[in-house]
TrEMBL record:
Its EC number is 2.1.2.1. (6S)-5,6,7,8-tetrahydrofolate binds at residues 128, 132-134, 251. Pathway: One-carbon metabolism; tetrahydrofolate interconversion; Amino-acid biosynthesis; glycine biosynthesis; glycine from L-serine: step 1/1. PROSITE patterns: SHMT (PS00096). Catalyzes the reversible interconversion of serine and glycine with tetrahydrofolate (THF) serving as the one-carbon carrier. This reaction serves as the major source of one-carbon groups required for the biosynthesis of purines, thymidylate, methionine, and other important biomolecules. Also exhibits THF-independent aldolase activity toward beta-hydroxyamino acids, producing glycine and aldehydes, via a retro-aldol mechanism. Residues 16-391 form the Serine hydroxymethyltransferase-like domain. It is an enzyme of class 2 (transferase). It comes from Streptomyces hydrogenans. Belongs to the SHMT family. Homodimer. The gene is glyA_1. Keywords: Amino-acid biosynthesis, Cytoplasm, One-carbon metabolism, Pyridoxal phosphate, Transferase. This is Serine hydroxymethyltransferase.
Length: 427
């Protein structure tokens, strides 16, 4: 139900012959991904089909422009590949226009700014420490240098977006572009509320659904379509595709976005990635993917409940999606310390700021976890109590500097992972 096409032929003979050192590193990464419990919410396992498409001879073609409007000849096949990806994106998300060429999420967001704002204009997004993304106008990003970024956040008492504050800020600052979405938001985004605010403020509204695109495609999170002007997303994470991105929009904004991507920001698209995106979009259109998306959320809710039962402090009190943000302050263990200890225990997470965090971003109070990868391996809510137990034991071991306890957990994790092979990895 939850796993895409699974296995590749063992080994990489051509790579091993040409570059044994690099082949050995690839093999080491394969074993690491197979043996560990991956809880980083932005990571996933792609199918063997997506991996194969990513490594085809489409790599050899240069294709500046768009289907039917290229600057190089010999595009008879490439045009069909890109058109296939475009049409599948439009059908899956129910949009009028899709551009599948952005190299990744940050360039996609930059294209949205280029399309609708000028240097020095005011732009608005969620503050990075509150769960937003660097490219939503945060100061250390180019978007915070080229534009005047203003940020909204969450309520201190609930950890939820304060839509009244968002509206007041938008009407006071009158931004050209508003971003909604983020990288550490465990709750449902009210796209309709953002849409009303953007229309009142006269702003172009961009929904950054990079984290939840697979949930939206699978019907496990409300869609922004009909409420926003532009949708930006990566094609990996919950969508379970290659490392790429897409921009989708109403027909009104299609030309501006296409011009911003090419020639505004990029040259030739990565055709092998476009092909892998097409494969992932086809997989996401199948009933089994809808089951997967709902299973991701069910696992996250079960894991959150199990962590709450063990006394963990979760931002906003839980989750509605694939992501859980834990504040480890009550446990007396900094997020970075906990993340490194969990890694030694075979549980891969990332340290993360929490709202109103008194600690610095590189050594924050929180840990961010998610369920896309473990769901791809076929784990169910019945496994989440065990996962929460391992997290609890590992955090306790981190506080006590008990390496033996972490080694014990790692062995237990490896046993469970062996029983649930990862999609796309060699047998």
């Amino acid at each position: 139900m939850t796993t895409p096409q699974t296995q590749l032929p063992a080994g990489h003979p051509a790579l091993a012959a040409a570059d044994p050192e690099l082949a050995a590193l690839v093999g080491a990464e394969e074993r690491l991904q197979a043996d560990t419990l991956r809880l980083i919410p932005s990571e996933n396992y792609v199918s063997a089909a997506v991996l194969e498409a990513s490594g085809t001879v489409l790599q050899n073609k240069y294709s500046e422009g768009y289907p039917g409007r290229r600057y190089y000849e010999g595009q008879q096949v490439i045009d069909q590949v890109e058109t296939l990806a475009i049409e599948r994106a439009k059908a899956l998300f129910g949009v009028a226009h899709a551009n599948v060429q952005p190299y990744s999420g940050s360039p996609a967001n930059l294209a949205a700014y280029l399309a609708f704002a000028k240097p020095g204009d005011t732009v608005m997004g969620m503050a990075l420490p509150m769960g937003g993304h660097l490219t939503h106008g945060w100061g250390v990003s180019a978007t915070g240098s080229w534009f005047r970024g203003v940020q909204y956040g969450v309520r201190r008492d609930t950890g939820l977006i304060d839509y009244d504050q968002v509206r007041d800020l938008a009407l006071a600052e009158r931004p050209e572009v508003i971003f909604c979405g983020g990288t550490a938001l465990p709750r449902t985004i009210d796209f309709a509320a953002f849409g009303e605010i953007a229309r009142e403020a006269g702003a172009v509204l961009v929904a950054d659904i990079a984290h939840i695109a697979g949930l939206v495609a699978g019907g496990a999170h409300p869609s922004p379509v009909g409420h926003v002007d532009v949708i930006s997303t990566t094609t990996h994470k919950t969508l379970r595709g290659p490392r790429g991105a897409m921009l989708m929009s109403t027909e009104e904004h299609a030309r501006a976005l296409d011009k911003a991507v090419f020639p505004g920001l990029q040259g030739g698209p990565h055709n092998q990635t476009t092909a892998a995106i097409a494969v992932a979009l086809r997989e996401a259109s199948l009933p089994s993917f809808r089951d997967y998306a709902h299973a991701v959320v069910a696992n996250a809710k079960a894991l959150a409940d199990a962590l709450l039962a063990r006394g963990f402090d979760l931002v906003s009190g839980g989750t509605d999606n694939h992501l859980i943000l834990m504040d480890l302050t009550p446990r007396g263990v900094p997020g970075k310390t906990a993340a490194k200890a969990l890694d030694r225990a075979g549980i891969v997470v990332n340290h993360n700021t929490v709202p109103f965090d008194p600690r610095k971003p590189f050594d924050p109070s929180g840990v961010r976890i998610g369920t896309p990868s473990l769901t791809s391996r076929g784990l169910t809510p019945a496994h989440m109590d065990q996962v929460a137990d391992w997290i609890d034991r590992a955090v306790t071991a981190a506080a006590a500097e008990d390496e033996d306890a972490l080694a014990t957990i790692r062995a237990e994790v490896a046993d469970l992972m062996a029983a649930h092979p990862a999609p796309g990895l060699p047998a």
